[in-house]
Design brief:
The chain is of the alpha/beta class and 286 residues long. It contains eleven helices and 14 strands. The strands form three sheets. Strands 6-7-8-3-9-10 form a six-stranded mixed β-sheet, with helices on both faces. Strands 2-1-4-5 form a four-stranded antiparallel β-sheet, with helices on one face. A hairpin with a 2-residue loop joins strand 4 (57-62) and strand 5 (65-66). The protein is elongated and about 70 Å long. Keywords: ATP-binding, Nucleotide-binding, Transport. One of its GO terms (molecular function) is ATP binding.
């Protein structure tokens, strides 16, 4: 399987924040969920990938090409959707097509119109009259209408209702049915990533904490819940992270079935991605 994106030892230094040796890949035919709390470095990483800001060290390859040296070739094949629409509020959907067809050689008017019909987007309304969901759908239609091989999404489903989010997630799943396509999907809505992502890259304080298969996380990892007395008896090297709460302790374990066999009296639940993230951020370790 080829990698559509390869990020290696990426660094960016600001006075109050540093992105430190960030490395991960986005394989073709996959959706990679990019998670982390606010200020963790997600948007900085995406801006570096898009060459909107200059890296201090490291490398970014997209389709096997350097993202700076081959920027124009790369961006012809990328669709990008941010958490807000950046189209002028007085434009109509038809105006967007007139502009973007001059930018992208592969712009497809018929495909764009098909997405507008599918998303029930009015061509007659100006953008400031759209709901947030309509604005996001317009951004996605615009990103897809030039036949990109890669989508980069920065909070593209944030603030949308569950029905709209479900509709958009289906579009993303359709997109990667072509095994040469891929998606880098930064989102705070970990439930969306549990539905569609193949891999999860977790960044915290400018460092990649893990870059793993989503199935490994949700089917192997577990959350142990126990009182103080039981917790004190545990070998802390068996725990990835732990956190004390009002009812006792919660701890993350790497293999919940194995842990259950060793500690049959303890409650071990499946771990959701947001629980894993929370324990890594707030938890202690041996």
């Amino acid at each position: 399987m080829e990698n559509v994106i390869e990020v290696r030892n990426l660094c960016k230094n600001y006075p109050s924040f540093q992105l430190k040796n960030v490395s991960f890949t986005v394989p073709s035919g996959s959706i990679v969920g990019f998670i982390g709390e606010n200020g963790a470095g997600k948007t900085t990483t995406i801006k570096l990938i898009l060459n909107e800001i200059r890296r201090d060290a490291g490398s970014v390859k997209i389709f096997g090409m350097d993202n700076i040296q081959d920027e124009c070739k790369i961006k012809e094949q990328i669709g990008v959707v941010f958490d807000e629409s950046y189209f002028h509020s007085e434009f109509k959907a038809s105006d967007i097509a007139k502009i973007l067809k001059r930018i992208y050689k592969s712009w497809d008017d018929a495909l764009y119109d098909d997405y507008l019909r599918r998303f029930r987007i009015s061509k007659d309304k100006i953008i400031k009259e759209y709901s947030k969901g309509m604005k996001m759908k317009l951004s996605i239609a615009s990103a897809l209408a030039h036949h990109p091989r890669l989508l980069i999404l920065d909070e593209a489903t944030s603030g949308l209702d569950p029905i709209v989010r479900s509709e958009i997630l289906d579009i993303f799943l359709d997109f990667i049915q072509d095994e040469s396509h891929a998606i880098l999907f930064s989102s705070h809505i970990t439930g969306d990533l549990e539905k569609v992502a193949d891999y999860i890259t977790f960044i915290h304080e400018g460092n990649v904490v893990f870059d793993r298969s989503k199935d490994d996380l949700i089917y192997l990892c577990g959350i142990v819940k126990c009182g103080a007395a039981d917790f004190q008896k545990l070998d802390k090297t068996e725990l990835v992270r732990w956190h004390k709460n009002e009812c006792g302790y919660e701890a993350l374990v790497e293999n919940r079935d194995e842990f259950k066999r060793k500690h049959p009296r303890l409650v071990v639940d499946a771990a959701a991605i947001d629980e894993i993230m929370l324990l890594y951020v707030k938890g202690e370790k041996a």
